[in-house]
Amino acid sequence: MRCSGLLTLVLVLNVAHCLEVQGPGGTPILEITRNITAVLGEDVYLRCEYVGESEILTALWKRQINSKVKSKPLAGFKDDAPFSRHPDISEPESVTNLTVKMNVSSVNVEGEYICEFESEEAFYSDSALITVVAQPEIQTQVNAEITNSTHYQSVSCSAVGGRPLPKISWLVDGRPPTDHLFTTDINETVHTNGTTTLSSVLHFPTHLQDEDSIMCVVQHPTLPSPTFTTVRVETYARPNVTTKAEMVQRGGSDFWVVSCISSGGRPDTRISLALNGEEELQRENDTDSDTQTSSVLLPVSLYEGHNITCLFDHPKFTHTVSRVITLPSLHISGIKLLHSELPNNGDDFQNMESLELQEGQRDTTIHLQVSGNVPRYNITCKKDDGPLSEDVEVIGGNLTFQGAVGFQHAGLYECFLSYRHLQAALKFNVTVQPRVLQPVPPVIRLDMQTKDGHRVIECSAADAVPAANMSWLLPEGVSEVSWFNFTSHNGSHSVRGVLLLPACSPRELSAECVINHPAFEEPQNRSVTLPLCAHPNITINISTEWEGGDEYTEVECSVESVFTAANITWHVGDTDNSIPSGSETETRSDGSVSSRSSVHFLSSLYSGHSLTCMVEHPSLEAAETRTIHIPLHKAPQLSVSVVRQKDSPLWLAVCDCRGEGVGANLAWVLPENAKEQTSLHSESEGRVLKARLTYQFPLTLHEGQNLTCVYRLKHGATEQKTIHIPKYHISSLRVLNHTTPLQDRHGGEPVVHRLSLDANHHNQRILLKVKGNVPEYNLECKRSDGAFVQMDGAAMVFPSEPTELDEGLYTCRASFYHHSTTVKIQVEVSCQDRLFALMTIICMSTALAILLILMVTLWVCCKRASSPNYKKRESLAALTTLVQEPSSPVSKNPPETGKDSKEYAHLISYSIVIDVKSNV
């Protein structure tokens, strides 16, 4: 009975242990991209991923050679290491993610690829099909040829290196080409790399094609839409043809130049001339831009009145085009006389038998107008059957009188005109009327201009008979300089008066010229007003510069004035004390004057004072001033800060100095144990200079200390700023979830926090909290095998349902530079169903143990009632050794006396220890 009870207890405990270690199973899944289209020359990804729960031992990519044979492994994972045995295939990412990158170097990579995963329990595989395409390159070319005197063009459009075979079509003016005009040839070339080149050639006669562009349309699966390529072709244009004839003189002889002209045609027009005679003539051909000219020189004496034919031949003409030009016959109808100063000297020509001239008349010309179409002619004239006077001559077909007309020019004139065999003559009588003297009023002009800083006013009364009298009227108080000039010519008289006035005046002035003459009933007045002189434009500018550590100021006063330069002086404050200055003056072509004066001084000399520029000019009734304030010199501004650098364990102390004239005299005051790692950078913004001094240091070196930045001025004074480096600490890392502390067997302090996760929930978190004054920290957790745990902020995350693999000891560490602390967490996974079964087994085991104790107790009581004490001890000896508590060897020996044996019987106690092992 005892053996059967113990055997039952051991059996129950073994069954519970078996139930505890058994885990749930799952069905593996493969995720794969089955159909892949790859472009030749580019990269493609073969994607295959195992998403099951089994542990994968090997993962391979193979190629299906035929229906029964597979290739050797191309890439995969074996012995926990990735490999690739193909130069165009990369190594996979992991043993469960077999995704690889393949370079499509040729069309031979097209086919079926097998993805295989092997675990201890099963073997999984799936396939992916790769289709290789190649985008064609479009090339066009235009060729021309002449067949049977007809010009043809061929347009070639090629889709090079395409897969699959592309499609090529043509569009002419947006429509497919017509069959009666265009012919198409198709040529297909297969390349060794598996691609194909398709060429289409379109032929057509040039003279029948009016469109200058033809469009090639290529369609291919690799193109998102049909590709339209425009090809420019040559077209013919119908020319405009004309003729022209003009007369020229070559070597003393006259020739007709007959020109046949073709313009705007394409290609060139063939031009020829048809003449009545067969003699060899001089021909000239000229091509200018889009105009062709073919000319011939014909002697005027031989071809007068002849017809000349120009012949034009062009592809756009259905037949040869001719143009006829008739050369005119030359003739002289007569000579007409036209005097230039007669009232009817317009287009109404009339023959004159008598011509009347005025004595003293000058620049007289008698025009001889020839009626006819001769290109040129010779004219000779005589007077009273004798030669012409010395001051009369024929110039350009006109009779011209040099000087004044006198009575000696009166008489009978006869002029003869001739050209080759053609002649004409004209006779006319010239009479001279005596001159009558009458008062001639002067021509009055008044001009004003500026010269050498003065207004020059000029008044003239010209060509008067007799001479005019002139005088000036001026405002009171105006002093003037004036003079008069008198001249005479051919009985007429002129007077000129000049008046000089100041060029610039602060008030408006008027001057009046008075002219007296017998032809005037009253004196004539001409007046001019001198406007106000423009006030000068005054500007003042200030600039500073640093030399040798000292600041210098330069102030410039500029004055833009007219006529004369301004006078510029400088004064400090309200005093009359002037300071030396440099000045320059520039006079421009428009009469304006630019005056500049500048002073240069040490800024500290007049710091905080006012500087005045005083300007004097004739246009100003009183001097004008411009004042500028010299600012006070400011000390440089210091600012310090501490920056924690990214991707570096060193901190950065920054000292910025901003001011005028800031130099390199900037330094950090560091403790004795500091090693300087400083750098200085300077830049300027106008007059302001900025300097930045940085110092790199580890936090442990200056934690809790002060850093001071000092700027030393030129004269020994200093400016400084101090910044404090905080003292950081991390006191502890706490677990916010409910945990059970495990005690240290020596010190009694909790060193491990135990908590349980539910095996039936997703996204379970273990919340952590860092106590301390650090601004931020780095928190990471890892298992006892060294694997890091997924973190979300300050929480450990178990995204999927926990399994027995997630059980174990986890160590979390929070750190901020050299400050750190850790916490250990014992994670257990509990299952409700397994816990219920375990509790049921424990309860049953406990009940059986209690029942066994009761049975043993009843059996002992029965034996004591029916047997003597000694035998009772003998019978219970074996059981006593089994159930008694551990004791010393002496206590195990029975006492020798009866008295002791009775006392010993009362001290016997029984213990049954049940050891139930569990993970809870």
Automatic annotation (TrEMBL):
Transmembrane parts of this sequence: 835-862
UniProt xrefs under Gene3D superfamilies: Immunoglobulins (2.60.40.10)
Location in the cell: Membrane
Signal peptide (residue range): 1-18
Pfam families with a match to the protein in the record: C2-set_2
Keywords noted in UniProt: Cell adhesion, Disulfide bond, Glycoprotein, Membrane, Repeat, Signal, Transmembrane, Transmembrane helix
GO cellular component: adherens junction; membrane
Bilayer disposition of the protein: Single-pass membrane protein
Keyword Lipid metabolism: no
Domain Ig-like: residue ranges: 28-131, 136-229, 239-326, 441-529, 536-629
InterPro entries: CD80_C2-set, Ig-like_dom, Ig-like_dom_sf, Ig-like_fold, Ig_sub, Nectin/Nectin-like
Ranges of biased composition (kind: Polar residues): 575-584
Region described as Disordered: spans on this chain: 574-594
GO biological process: heterophilic cell-cell adhesion via plasma membrane cell adhesion molecules; homophilic cell adhesion via plasma membrane adhesion molecules
Alphabetized PROSITE patterns for the sequence: IG_LIKE (PS50835)
Family (UniProt): Belongs to the nectin family.
PANTHER family in the record: HEMICENTIN-1 (PTHR23277:SF107), NECTIN-RELATED (PTHR23277)
Protein name according to UniProt: Uncharacterized protein si:ch211-149e23.4 isoform X1
Species the sequence originates in: Xyrichtys novacula
